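Section 3.1 - Work completed
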Amino acid sequence: MAFANPDSETIRTILSDATNIAVVGLSSKPERDSHGVAKALQQFGYHIIPVRPGVDKILGEVAFPDLQSLPEVPDIVDVFRNPTAIPGIVDDCIEIGAKVLWLQEGVVDEESALRAQEHGITVVMDKCMFKEWVALKGGATP
C-alpha cells in the first residue's frame, strides 16, 4: 500500500481544530525554517511546544527534550528532523497517543508514515504547515 496525504478538506480540519503544536526539532536560530514556521504558527494563534533537548526556551515557550516529557498530548506533532529520525518519532507518537503527525517539506519516510497510520495517527508528509495554512485558511498571513 502506498502512502497518500489527507485531502485538502481533512488538512483544513486538522489546522482548524488544533490549538497546540509540538514542534520537534525547533531551532532557536531565527534563520532556520523551523524557527520561522513556528513563529508564524504562534502568530496564527497556535500554542507552540518546542521539542529540542538541551534548550530551556524557544520563542518564549518552555522547551522539552522529547515527546514523552510533554505535560499533555499535542494536537499536532510537527517534525523538522532528518528522515532517519522518523521511525523513532513515530514510536514516540504511538506511545503518547498522538493523533496527527505532520512531517515538514523534505521529511519523507513512507514506511514510517504507513506504520503511524496503522496505529490510527493521521499523517501529513512532505508539506509545510505554514504554506498549507496560508493556502487553506484564506491566503492571509499575520
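Second construct:
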Amino acid sequence: MALKPTLYKLTLNLVDMNRDIYLTDKLTLVLHPSETETRMMVRLLAYALNHESDLAFSRGLSATDEPDLWTVQGDGAVHLWIEVGQASAERLRKGVSRADRVRLYAYGSETDIWWNKQGGALSELPKTEIYRFDPAGVDSLAALCSRNMELTLTISEEQIFLSDGEQQAEVSLSRLSQ
C-alpha cells in the first residue's frame, strides 16, 4: 500500500519589503511521503521569495518532469522554474530548456560540498540563478510546522523572518551564481 501525502493548511501573511508586497494568502501545502517538513518549509520560503499571481506549487516529488514551483502561462509556456535542494546540472538543464527563467534554492549542511562538485557546471547554465539558505536557519523551520498554520513571513534584504506568533525562525539567503 502506497503512503499518501499529508496536507497542511496555511494562512501566510507575507511582508516582502524588497518588492513592496504585503498580502495574506491561504495555501495548502502537500508533504510528499518521502519529503521532510523542513523541505516543505523551504518550498514555502521559495514561494514567498518569488511570489507572483500565477506562481504555483507543482506535483513536486511525484512528477520528475516538473519543478517544485513554477509559473505557467495560459498557453502552457513556463515563465519561471524553481527547484529546491541540491539539484544536478542535468536537472536544471530540463528547466532551462522549458522555462524563461530558472532559480535554485539550495539548503542543507552539505551545500558547500555539493557546490564544490556541481558549482562549475551550474554556473555555466544560461538564465539560471542559484541561491543558498543558511543551514542553521533552515534547521529551525520544522519547529514552526503544524497541520494548520498561520505564519508571518517577512523578507528584508537577504534576511527572512518567519513567525507563528509564539516561535520564530530567521534564515539568511545568499546568492551563489548569476
